[in-house]
Amino acid sequence: MHVELKNTTRKLCVIGDPVLHSKSPLIQNTMLSALGLDYIYLCQPVSAGRAAEWLSAAKVAGYAGFNATMPHKLDLVPLMDELDEDARLYQSVNTVCIKEGKVYGYNTDGRGFLQALLDAGVDPAGKRVLLLGAGGAAKAVALKLVQQGCVSLTVCNRTLERAEMLCQFNAAVMRAVGFDAATLRLEASRADLLVNCTSLGMGGVAGQFEDFHFLDALPHAAAVCDLIYHPAETELLAQARLRGHRTLNGLGMLIHQAVFALEHFTDTQLDGAAMRALVEGVL
């Protein structure tokens, strides 16, 4: 991919620790090039605890904005002059825009996940959701699903207390349970949509589900989503597909959250479907 640099070219980047594995530069530069926008998107390692230092440096260096991945999403929240509704709700920032000396924090994770679901023909409204995991990604997904009208959302997590903390957002709709085989099977039997927000099955991570018998209890019409996109088909998705379930991985979420971030950076409304097709062609 050819990127033309001019004196007027505005800088964007992704920060994190680690971050050199990130696909964000490829995704964003692909979109910027296709749109003819005068920006370049870089990868910037920033070690844990140094988000405030980076923010000051980014202002001085004239950055238009940046994305943030772990471990900076929480640390950025109190540093923002303004937060959008989702960033305030999740208490997590993944997109920062710098305009006239002020910093604006956004979170596009939940919106990205929702759009990916809708692309796959899955509307969470009225659905009973079984969500595996209670970390940062799970929080954005869970709260967006509740906002969109799922009738129940059950959070399965090995550390029950962490799931209970997440479920405090809406105790009328959300409830916390454990992660043992019997519980997974029971809760799967009641679900219309199963979402894996854990790292189990991720490429390069030494962790996998102990067994997949809980999928046998899923109603046949239930969809199964895994936020992991490497590998493209995790063992969870493969096992669900073999049982006849509709499946989707995390690539759609990755792309759509990037599209929404780019809209914030550039004040440009984008065609999400066209951008997804473009980016999928280079990934």
From TrEMBL:
Keywords: Amino-acid biosynthesis, Aromatic amino acid biosynthesis, NADP, Oxidoreductase. Residues 125-199 form the Quinate/shikimate 5-dehydrogenase/glutamyl-tRNA reductase domain. Pathway: Metabolic intermediate biosynthesis; chorismate biosynthesis; chorismate from D-erythrose 4-phosphate and phosphoenolpyruvate: step 4/7. NADP(+) binds at E85, G133, A134, G135, G136, A137, N157, R158, T159, L160, E161, R162, L227, G250. Pfam families: SDH_C (PF18317), Shikimate_DH (PF01488), Shikimate_dh_N (PF08501). It catalyses: shikimate + NADP(+) = 3-dehydroshikimate + NADPH + H(+). Residues 14-96 form the Shikimate dehydrogenase substrate binding N-terminal domain. One of its GO terms (cellular component) is cytosol. The keyword Transmembrane does not apply. The keyword NADP applies. CDD domains: NAD_bind_Shikimate_DH. The active site is at K73. Its EC number is 1.1.1.25. InterPro entries: Aminoacid_DH-like_N_sf (IPR046346), NAD(P)-bd_dom_sf (IPR036291), SDH_C (IPR041121), Shikimate_DH (IPR011342), Shikimate_DH-bd_N (IPR013708), Shikimate_DH_fam (IPR022893), Shikm_DH/Glu-tRNA_Rdtase (IPR006151). It is an enzyme of class 1 (oxidoreductase). GO terms for molecular function: NADP binding; shikimate 3-dehydrogenase (NADP+) activity. Shikimate binds at S22, K23, S24, T69, N94, D109, Y229, Q257. GO terms for biological process: amino acid biosynthetic process; aromatic amino acid family biosynthetic process; chorismate biosynthetic process; shikimate metabolic process. Residues 250-279 form the SDH C-terminal domain. Signal peptide: none annotated. Involved in the biosynthesis of the chorismate, which leads to the biosynthesis of aromatic amino acids. Catalyzes the reversible NADPH linked reduction of 3-dehydroshikimate (DHSA) to yield shikimate (SA). Belongs to the shikimate dehydrogenase family. Homodimer. This is Shikimate dehydrogenase (NADP(+)). The gene is aroE.
